[in-house]
Recover the amino acids of this structure.
C-alpha cells in the first residue's frame, strides 16, 4: 500500500516536474452553455482558474463528447464544503517557422502543472495556486527554481451573486480574459503569462450584469515579477442581453503608471451566441495611449481580437480568429496581425486536446507560422 | 421584442467594432533613437516577459529588465560607470557598426541558429530604430 502511495506521489511529482504556465478562463463556454456569468463554474468572481462543483458537472454533462464524472478525483473523494482542490496539467508540442533565414523550430515541453486549493470559512475564503513556471527552450532552470505561485488571494463574498472584495495576486478583470495568453489583447496589454499583479479588487456580479474595479501594482522582481512596471487602476463592466442572455457587451478601462511611461486603455467587448447554427462571436477592441516621462512624444495604440467558434458536435469546438496590435499608430511598419485556427476536442471530462495553427504578418518581414498541439488534463 | 432587437444590434456593434481594427499607421518614423526609449517601447514589452530575459529568469544569463542592466549586457559597458551586480557584460553591440553587432543578426535572424525574440519577430521599423541607435554610437541616453 505504501509502495503504491509512493509510486502515485512520485508519478504526481514527475507530472508536475514536467509542467508549467497559466490556465485562465474559456470565454467560449460562458454563453454557449447557457451560463450567463463566469463565476457559475469558476470560483473566482470574474472566472478563470479552479472550477467549482457545478463547473465540474458541466465539464462532464455539457462540454465533453462522451461525458464522464468531472468531479475531483472522479468522485473518489468528496471534498467538504469548505475546501476545493484541483490540478491542471498541460503538455505541448510546437513547430514554428519564421521564414527562409531560419530553420523551423520544434519543441516538446511541459506547459502547466498547477495545484489549486480553495478554503472557505463563512464569507471569507483563501485561494492559492502553486506550480512550476513553463520554460519552452533550454537550458531549463531546475524544477525547484521554477516553482512559484501565480495566484494567491483572499476574498470576502456572501454569495456568488452580489458584492465581493478580493486582495492578492491575480489578473485584474479586463476584456475577454481568454486562456490563450498569446492573444495580442493579453500579450501586449499587461496580461501575458506570469504577469498577474498584486491587486485590491472589488465588484458586484449579478446574472444580468457584473462590474469589477481593481487597483493593481506589479509583483516585485524578488518575487518573480514579470510584465510592465506599472501601478494603476482597471475596471470592467459587462451586461448580458437578450431574452436568453445569449449576448453580452462589455466595457473596460485601465490606467497604468510607471517610472518611465504611462499607459491608458479604453475598450469594449462583444459576445453573441447563435443557438441555431451553434456559432459564437467574440470581439474585443482596445484603444490606448502611452506617454513617456523622459520627454519623448507619446504614441496611440490599438489592439483588437475577433473570433468565431463553431460546435459541429458536442465536445468539438472549432475556432477562427483575427488579431491586430498596432503599437504606435503614428509610425508606419510597427503593427502586427495574426490569423488563427483552433480545434479543441473534449472527449471526456478531465481531458482536452487542442490544435492551433497561427500565422503572423504585418510589419514583421516573412510571415511567422506556428503549429501547436496541447494535451490538457485536470483532476 | 424591440428591446431584444436593440440588444442584438448592440452586441453586433460591439463585435463589429473589433472587426474594424484598422491600425494602418502611416507616419514617418521620427521616434528618438535613444536607449531609454528603445528599452521602454521595444525591449521591455518584447524581451522581458514570461520566462525570458527577466530579472528572475534571465534566460541564457541575459537580464534586460532595467535600462542599466540591459545597456550593460548589450553594449558591454555600464551606463553610469558601474556594472549592475551579478551581471557579466557581453558585447552584443559594436557602437557605430550595426553590421558588426551580433544584436542585429539576432533580431533579423540572419546567420544565427535562433532569431530573437523567438516567439515572434520584431516589426521591421523597430529593428531599423535599433540599427539607427547603434549607428549613432549606441549611447546610454
Amino acid at each position: 500500500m505504501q509502495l503504491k502511495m509512493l509510486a502515485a506521489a512520485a508519478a504526481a511529482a514527475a507530472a508536475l516536474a514536467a509542467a508549467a504556465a497559466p490556465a485562465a478562463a474559456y470565454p467560449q463556454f460562458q454563453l454557449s452553455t447557457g451560463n450567463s456569468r463566469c463565476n457559475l463554474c469558476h470560483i473566482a468572481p470574474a472566472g478563470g482558474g479552479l472550477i467549482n462543483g457545478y463547473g465540474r458537472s458541466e465539464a462532464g454533462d455539457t462540454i465533453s463528447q462522451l461525458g464522464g464524472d468531472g468531479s475531483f478525483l472522479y468522485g473518489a473523494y468528496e471534498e467538504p464544503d469548505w475546501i476545493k482542490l484541483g490540478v491542471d496539467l498541460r503538455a505541448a508540442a510546437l513547430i514554428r517557422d519564421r521564414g527562409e533565414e531560419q530553420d523551423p523550430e520544434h519543441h516538446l515541453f511541459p506547459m502547466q502543472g498547477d495545484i489549486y486549493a480553495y478554503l472557505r470559512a463563512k464569507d471569507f475564503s483563501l485561494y492559492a495556486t502553486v506550480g512550476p513556471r513553463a520554460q519552452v527552450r533550454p537550458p531549463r532552470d531546475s524544477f525547484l527554481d521554477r516553482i512559484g505561485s501565480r495566484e494567491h488571494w483572499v476574498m470576502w463574498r456572501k454569495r456568488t451573486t452580489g458584492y465581493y472584495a478580493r486582495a492578492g495576486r491575480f489578473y485584474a478583470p479586463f476584456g475577454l480574459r481568454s486562456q490563450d495568453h498569446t492573444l495580442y489583447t493579453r500579450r501586449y496589454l499587461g496580461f501575458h503569462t506570469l504577469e498577474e499583479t498584486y491587486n485590491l479588487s472589488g465588484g458586484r456580479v449579478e446574472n444580468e450584469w457584473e462590474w469589477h474595479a481593481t487597483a493593481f501594482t506589479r509583483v516585485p522582481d524578488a518575487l518573480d515579477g514579470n510584465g510592465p512596471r506599472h501601478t494603476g487602476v482597471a475596471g470592467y463592466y459587462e451586461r448580458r442581453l437578450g431574452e436568453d442572455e445569449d449576448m453580452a457587451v462589455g466595457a473596460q478601462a485601465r490606467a497604468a503608471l510607471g517610472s518611465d511611461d504611462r499607459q491608458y486603455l479604453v475598450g469594449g467587448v462583444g459576445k453573441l451566441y447563435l443557438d441555431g447554427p451553434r456559432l459564437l462571436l467574440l470581439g474585443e477592441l482596445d484603444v490606448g495611449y502611452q506617454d513617456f516621462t523622459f520627454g519623448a512624444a507619446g504614441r496611440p495604440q490599438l489592439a483588437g481580437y475577433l473570433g468565431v467558434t463553431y460546435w459541429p458536435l458536442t465536445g468539438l469546438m472549432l475556432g477562427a480568429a483575427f488579431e491586430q496590435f498596432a503599437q504606435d499608430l503614428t509610425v508606419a511598419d510597427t503593427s502586427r496581425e495574426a490569423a488563427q485556427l483552433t480545434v479543441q476536442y473534449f472527449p471526456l471530462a478531465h481531458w482536452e486536446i487542442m490544435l492551433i495553427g497561427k500565422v503572423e504578418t504585418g510589419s514583421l518581414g516573412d510571415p511567422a507560422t506556428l503549429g501547436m498541439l496541447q494535451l490538457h488534463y485536470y483532476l | 421584442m424591440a428591446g431584444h432587437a436593440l440588444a442584438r444590434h448592440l452586441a453586433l456593434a460591439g463585435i463589429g467594432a473589433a472587426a474594424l481594427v484598422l491600425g494602418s499607421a502611416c507616419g514617418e518614423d521620427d521616434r528618438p533613437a535613444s536607449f531609454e526609449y528603445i528599452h521602454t517601447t521595444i525591449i521591455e514589452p518584447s524581451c522581458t516577459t514570461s520566462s525570458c530575459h527577466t530579472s528572475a529568469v534571465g534566460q541564457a544569463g541575459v537580464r534586460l529588465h532595467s535600462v542599466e542592466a540591459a545597456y550593460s549586457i548589450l553594449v558591454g559597458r555600464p551606463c553610469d560607470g558601474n556594472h549592475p551586480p551579478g551581471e557579466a557584460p557581453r558585447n552584443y553591440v559594436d557602437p557605430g557598426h550595426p553590421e558588426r553587432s551580433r544584436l542585429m543578426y539576432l533580431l533579423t535572424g540572419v546567420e544565427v541558429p535562433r532569431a530573437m525574440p523567438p516567439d515572434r519577430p520584431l516589426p521591421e521599423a523597430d529593428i531599423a530604430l535599433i540599427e539607427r541607435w547603434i549607428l549613432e554610437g549606441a549611447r546610454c541616453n
Chain B touches chain A through 61 residues (CB under 8 Å). Chain B is about 40% helix and 0% strand. Residues 2-19 of chain B form the longest helix (18 residues).
